[in-house]
Amino acid sequence: MADDNKTILEKANAAIMNGDNEGFLSFCTDDTVWTFVGDQTLRGKEAVRRYMASAYLEPPKFMVENLIAEGDFVTALGKIRLKDTNGQMADYAYCDVWRFRDGKMAELKAFVIKTDK
């Protein structure tokens, strides 16, 4: 099951990098909850859809350095490049902890820190 969840996350991430937000959302539960630690919490697929529409005007570019799976959880560590609040491309380090339910991404706890590179 853990390996299946890793595969699901890899497919979902590929959709985002290709600008296919709806393709990504097809891997999420309708009641998905995304918590950006220290920032905001999004509740439900529609809230995530609105967030993606504004935050991912250009598809983000990211590199997953490690995927660690255990039970219903997959943790992704890596780097992401996307536009910041000023519209400039910026680099971030991230750690995403995903909880899966019935083969879909049900919850995200994201730790994201802006870096110089």
From TrEMBL:
- Where the record annotates domain SnoaL-like, the positions are 11-107
Instruction: Report the InterPro entries cross-referenced here.
Output: NTF2-like_dom_sf, SnoaL-like
Q: Which domain of life is it from?
A: Bacteria
Q: What protein name does the entry list?
A: SnoaL-like domain-containing protein
